[in-house]
Amino acid sequence: MDEFQERPAPSPAKLLGQFNDWVAETEMPGRTMSYLKTGFLPEMLAAKMESTNGDDKIAAMLESWVGWEKGKTRPEIVLAVLKDQGLVELLTELPE
Fold first, then answer.
1. What range does the domain containing 35 cover?
2. pLDDT per residue as tens digits for the range 32-80
3. Which pLDDT value is given to residue 25?
4. Cα of 75 vs its chain's centroid, Å
5. Looking at the domain assignment, is residue 6 inside a domain?
6. What is the model's pTM?
7. What is the number of H-type helices and E-type strands within the chain?
8. What is the distance between the alpha carbons of residues 76 and 29, in angstroms, rounded to a whole number?
9. What is the spatial distance between Cα 15 and Cα 40, in angstroms, rounded to a whole number?
10. How far is CA 3 from CA 6, 9, 39, 50, in A?
11. Residue 6 has pLDDT above 80, yes or no
């Protein structure tokens, strides 16, 4: 067996559930960011950005995310940007 297995495909439904846990205030911001990162949200946003030729809302989400990864933006701020820029709608529209 290979030492490394393929990464699972991102699941928009799972990401949506994890994000909604934060919206419902049943999960901490840092934990939610961790779940979204391991669920491949940054990669999904980057792919969507390419396919939409630079959608402003996706760009704002990615910019905020990068700020968090560089330690410049607090998790709750990033999550608020994701919410305000339509992450729920985006994840709802993406195929599984």
1. 12-93
2. 999 999 999 999 999 999 988 888 999 999 999 999 999 999 999 999 9
3. 96
4. 12
5. no
6. 0.88
7. 6, 0
8. 5
9. 9
10. 10, 19, 21, 32
11. no
Distance from the first to the final alpha carbon of the chain: 27
* Number of domains observed in the structure of the chain: 1
Q: Is residue 28 part of a domain?
A: yes
Q: Is 68 helix (H, G, I), strand (E, B) or coil?
A: helix
- Cβ atoms of 49 and 55 within 8 Å: the answer is yes
Q: Cβ distance 27 to 21 under 8 Å?
A: yes
| 64-90 burial code (b ≥16 CB/10 A, e <16) | bbeebeeeebebeebbebbeebbbeeb
Q: What is the pLDDT of residues 54-67, one digit of tens each?
A: 889 999 999 999 99
